């Protein structure tokens, strides 16, 4: 059965449902972007210190194949840099500073996926969203890299790997049929389909995802 992740925006961001019979879980969306620079080391540390249940964040791949946590495929909105994440090496990213909600430059830098996962000590769960490069291009091998790192950190039982792109979810399921996955479905996709909202459930089932995110 497909389980839904409810997209309710609160102080910290996304609030997700827990398994049937359990209480609600509070998730820090982009690390808690309403309070701290989004997807920043400070945000993840502070969210965990506040006692959130789940860390939600976004994953891109650098020019030299490193997994980093940043929302956009380009650098301008959230950092003091310019260009595409896919064209930037990790070393180059390390020299950049993140912007705060007011657009001002902070002392925070772009974290790697490994660094964020290391922040999520038990029982914190993680919701990494695998993104695409500028223009919607898939990052080659990104699914394998994310799965390998999640396994290496012992988080396979505390992760739901998410993506808007069906092929990404299908690739994760092909690599590990036991890992929880979520197909994210936008309102725009539903409206463009011309069908009822329940079409999203069909798409999720066809992708073999265990969860539906909206």
How are the secondary structure elements laid out?
Layout: E1 3-5, E2 8-9, E3 14-16, E4 25-29, H1 41-50, E5 54-61, E6 67-69, H2 90-94, H3 113-119, E7 125-130, H4 142-152, E8 160-163, H5 166-175, E9 180-184, H6 187-193, H7 199-206, E10 211-213
Parallel strand pairs: 1-10, 4-5, 5-7, 8-9, 9-10
Antiparallel strand pairs: 2-3, 3-4, 5-6
Radius of gyration: 16 Å
Number of domains: 1
Distance between the termini: 17 Å
| Structural classification | alpha/beta
Low confidence ranges: 6-17
CATH fold naming: TIM Barrel
Q: In sequence order, what are the helices and strands, one letter per element?
A: EEEEHEEHHEHEHEHHE
Per CATH, the class reads: Alpha Beta
Binned strand content? 15-25%
Major sheet? 6 strands, mixed
Number of strands: 10
SS field, number of helical segments:
7
Average pLDDT for all residues: 91
Residue share in helix: 25-40%
By CATH, the superfamily comes out as Phosphatidylinositol (PI) phosphodiesterase
Basic shape? globular
Name the CATH architecture: Alpha-Beta Barrel
